[in-house]
Structure formats: structure tokens, C-alpha cells
């Protein structure tokens, strides 16, 4: 097996994943084997949609974070983001609730890898705060699939400081959004779209 090199939004902080660690199931891109044979380097990055009024990703929410998310088409979602001072708890430190919201969003978005209309919601979110998350500092927020099977899933996330230190980490149990909630949803009215570059 060769190593897979997967680059996310920022070429300054590439992440390398050995192919032997990639585990896919039938829901993740139709590959049924437990391990993948990789013959060449992958550099795929896919921009995910945003909505109009979501606190984390909404483009028209005057109080929102306006985060943008990318996935690798396999098992990770990433956002490179700098949190403004307006979202501090202590001076110069991002409020813990905002850190939790960023992790909730990036981790839940793993369900949309390969299908931007597969919506899942948080059933349980555990956050561990390892170090203060500074405002006005470039961060990398990462979500990774642990297991997506049927209507349930598990995923993890991290907030990384510029030096690679894990400032916060999370574990989430997800469930498909109930069909009755989605039956009357007009995605166009929600502004669910991929932004123009």
C-alpha cells in the first residue's frame, strides 16, 4: 500500500493519512472493502454548501461566524478559520460555546461527504477543552468519520492551533434527520448552496 496525501484548503498545513488507516463502508462512496488499495496520490478537495441563516455557516446571519467547509470525498471535513474578537469569553480567548458550535458543525458535516443533501443531527456531543483557543489566530477545524452505518454515525473533531497543537477535541453520535422534518424543507428557500469563489 502507498500513502495517500490529502491536502485541505490550506497548502501550508497538509495532512498525510496512510492508506492502511482509511476505512470505508458501503455508505462512503460505494466501496465495500475494509481497506483501500491506493495507486496514486489524491489531492481532491470539495467545497460544501452553506445556508443563509445558520449561526456557523450562514451567509446572511448578521451575528454568524461565516465559516466555509471543504471535504476530501472520503472521510474528513476541514475549515481554516480565524475567530473574531467579538466571540471571546475571556479577553483574547474564544468562548467555549463558540468552540463547541464550530466542532458541532464540522463533525456533523462528515455525513455530507459525497452527498450534500444527507443531513444528520447531533444526538450527543462531547467536547474536551485542552488549551485556550485564541481569537484572531488562524485555526484548522477538522471533522473525521469514525463510522457511518444506516441512520446512525460516530465522528470526531479537533480545533488545531497554528503549531498543530490540539486545543479542543470532540466526539459525536449522529442520527439522520427524521424524514418528517425534511419533507417540507425547501433547500432553495434556506439558501442551501455552494458559494461562488
Quick tags:
about 200 residues, mainly beta, Thiol Ester Dehydrase, Chain A, seven-stranded antiparallel beta sheet, two-stranded antiparallel sheet, 3 helices, disordered N terminus
- Principal-axes geometry comes out as globular
CATH homologous superfamily caption: Hotdog Thioesterase
- Radius of gyration based on Cα positions: 17 Å
**Helicity range:** 10-25%
Structural class designation? mainly beta
Q: What this model shows, in words?
A:
The protein is mainly β. The chain has a single domain (45-190), classed as Hotdog Thioesterase (Thiol Ester Dehydrase, Chain A, Roll). 11% of the residues lie in helices and 31% in strands. The chain has three helices and nine strands; from the N terminus they run βββββαββββαα. It has helices at 96-108, 179-182, 187-190; strands at residues 3-6, 15-18, 46-47, 70-71, 76-82, 120-129, 138-149, 152-160, 166-176. A seven-stranded antiparallel sheet has the order 3-4-5-7-8-9-6, with helices on one face. It has a two-stranded antiparallel ribbon with strand order 1-2. β7 (138-149) and β8 (152-160) form a beta hairpin. The longest helix has 13 residues, at 96-108. The radius of gyration is 17 Å and the shape is globular. The N and C termini lie far apart (36 Å).
Amino acid at each position: 500500500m502507498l500513502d495517500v496525501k490529502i491536502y485541505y484548503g490550506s497548502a501550508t498545513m497538509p495532512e498525510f493519512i496512510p492508506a492502511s488507516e482509511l476505512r470505508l463502508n458501503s455508505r462512503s462512496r460505494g466501496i465495500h472493502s475494509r481497506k483501500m488499495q491506493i495507486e496514486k496520490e489524491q489531492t481532491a478537495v470539495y467545497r460544501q454548501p452553506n445556508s443563509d441563516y445558520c449561526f456557523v455557516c450562514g451567509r446572511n446571519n448578521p451575528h454568524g461566524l461565516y465559516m466555509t467547509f471543504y471535504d476530501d470525498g472520503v472521510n474528513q471535513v476541514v475549515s481554516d478559520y480565524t475567530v473574531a474578537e467579538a466571540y471571546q469569553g475571556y479577553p483574547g480567548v474564544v468562548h467555549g460555546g463558540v468552540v463547541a458550535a464550530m466542532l458541532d458543525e464540522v463533525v456533523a458535516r462528515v455525513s455530507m461527504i459525497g452527498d450534500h443533501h444527507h443531513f444528520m443531527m447531533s444526538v450527543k456531543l462531547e467536547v474536551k477543552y485542552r488549551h485556550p483557543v485564541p481569537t484572531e489566530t488562524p485555526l484548522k477545524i477538522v471533522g473525521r468519520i469514525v463510522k457511518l452505518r444506516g441512520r446512525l454515525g460516530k465522528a470526531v473533531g479537533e480545533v488545531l492551533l497554528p503549531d498543530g497543537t490540539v486545543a479542543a477535541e470532540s466526539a459525536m453520535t449522529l442520527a439522520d434527520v427524521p424524514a418528517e422534518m425534511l419533507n417540507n424543507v425547501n433547500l432553495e428557500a434556506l439558501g442551501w448552496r455552494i458559494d461562488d469563489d
